[in-house]
Amino acid sequence: MKPDLYYKDEHLSCTHFHREDTTFEFKSTEKESEYSDTFIKENLIVLFLKGSFRVTSHYFHDQFIHQDEMIVLPQGDSYTITTGKNSRMLLFRFEAPTSSCAKQLLNSYKHTCGPTPYKGAALTIKKPIEEYIQLLYLYLSKGIKCEHLFEIKKDEFFLSLRWFYSKDDLSNFFYPIIHCTCTFRKTIMENLNVVNNVADMIEACNMSKSLFYKRFKSEFGISAKQWLIAQLKERMRRKVLEPEVTAKDLMNEFNFSSPEHLNLFCKKQFGMTPSQLIKSHQIS
Predict the structure, then answer these.
(1) Are 90 and 47 in contact (CB under 8 A)?
(2) CA distances from 237 to 43, 75, 180, 242, 282 (A)
(3) Domain carrying residue 51
């Protein structure tokens, strides 16, 4: 790779382009520098174009990354990147792939989730990605701010990975994102019968409200409140099928604070009182 190809224009010494859409961001420094973020709002792919780098995050523990390599840092993670002199890199931020092909790319690797110890894996930047970066730099350096174009470039990046890298390479590369998603779903399911509301679930997941709401909607397709209510209704339907079950049993098992609280819930969600709900499900 020849990083200087991206910086031929002497009038473009600054490689940080300020746009409302910060999906792509070039960074360049002549001296040793440090970049850090205590809470990544979106998934982040860092492409190291020139220089020496040391990365510390949840998956990368004071790990040296070479130029012409790239890594993934998942949403919600924190990181510190220490660069050497004359270093250049490209930051690519995304919440989730939007095209069907890009979604399939990540979905096909969900089998990698599991307890196996994982050390952060860097991926070599191959020639097709080099050319992709060079054209992207040209667009940004000319002040192009077309939202549609950068959505296309985002999808193109994922397609290029799928075309030019092996499945094993991409499984390791995307593990931090995939593992994060699977762990989140596992935590939700493990706490389903323990928590009483969304606030308790957020606490169980140990994350901020905004990140929890985003990740939950992405994972389950509906809001956390709607999902918890639907799960509670289904569990109650199964419970009222049991012989001799009472309204008191429902109140105790599903953590309703009082008979009035249970009554309000049943009327709102089932259109009937607890006693009527039980009666409607009992076999004559």
Answers:
(1) yes
(2) 39, 37, 32, 10, 11
(3) 3-179
Residue 245, phi then psi, degrees to nearest 5: -70, 145
**One domain for residues 42 and 174:** yes
Tokens of 58: 């949840």
Domain CATH for 27: 2.60.120.280
Q: Are 10 and 130 members of one domain?
A: yes
Q: What global pTM score does this model have?
A: 0.60
pLDDT digits (tens, 9 = 90+) for 81-130: 999 999 999 999 987 665 666 666 666 665 555 445 566 789 999 999 99
Amino acid at 106: L
- CA angle, residues 174, 40, 171, in degrees to nearest 5: 5
Residues in the chain: 284
220: in domain: no
Contact predicate 28/67, CB 8 Å: no
